[in-house]
Amino acid sequence: MTSLEVYLDFATSLAQECGQIILEASITRYSKTKKVYEKHGNSSDLVTETDKMVEELIRSRIISKFPEHRFIGEETTAAGHQCELTNDPTWIVDPIDGTTNFVHGFPFVAVCIGLTINKEPVVGAIFNPFLNQLFTARKGNGAYLNLNTKLPLSHPNPPPILPSNLSQCLIVTEYGSDRSPMVIGKKVQSIHNMVSKSGNVNSSNKNAGSVHGVRSLGSAALGIMEVVKGEADIFWEIGCWEWDVTAAIIILREAGGLIVSGNGPNEEPVDILGRKYLAVRAGSPFWLENCGMLLKR
Ligand code: 2AM
Ligand code: CA
Ligand code: CA
Ligand code: CA
Fold first, then answer.
1. ipTM greater than 0.90, yes or no?
2. Out of the domains of life, which is the source (predicted)?
3. Can you list the domains of the chain with their CATH numbers?
4. pLDDT tens across 23-53, in order?
5. Are 177 and 273 in contact (CB under 8 A)?
């Protein structure tokens, strides 16, 4: 077995184990494990005992199995702290992506375990125990759903529309937990640009809607997985974190997708710590140029 195979096996079984814990914790809605706390008094930034417990489990497993590796996790990172990414093997973990969904029982909740080497994501496992969907990839070996279905999906029913224009795209984005008027105002303006009749700068038909639709799942990682599957075309988000995207980046790339930083097409390779991500599914990179133009306005 190569070392990447060992790392992916480890990440996959850990994600499955943690998914089971998350599922069980969610069954008793008002149990201690689902006690909800607001982070820094922000009512849209939640954390539960399960977030903390799962992260601690993952961290301790990594420390005992790979003591020389580094670890970055959402719940062990102090607020406002800028994580440092080195060339060392570094596990970047979100114990629960979609905490608000977890609290409400909305079934888009995932544990995300990614590994970077030389600052590049090389292994990723993302598991949604509510929908029983496991996404895995290691560098050079393709991406898989539930271990044996190759990604992107090739035979969904009906088959995916391959857009020839941005106006035919389904876009996924998130509102995030920072609800300050400036941050949310920019986000809403961008969404307005995407959906308004005059929003598509590339459309010759000014009455055409700008894009087919904009979706928000409450889990950035699972939003990117929709792009990986080919069920959405573009994921765009400013404000999410390295633990939301590290596992997703390698899965997306192994499924033929592209991810860049920020709003535009000229920023590859993506800055993992940059908190601005624009991902497109396998297919024509023209989307990048077009959506860059749209989102910048
Ligand atoms: P979380 O559930 O792990 O906190 C919906 O808000 C999505 O964005 C989730 O993936 C959520 O991760 C993530 N997120 C959390 N805080 C955010 C922020 N300040 N800006 C953008 N996304 C954020
Ligand atoms: Ca959070
Ligand atoms: Ca997250
Ligand atoms: Ca989280």
1. yes
2. Eukaryota
3. 3-150 (3.30.540.10), 166-296 (3.40.190.80)
4. 999 886 555 567 899 998 899 898 999 999 9
5. no
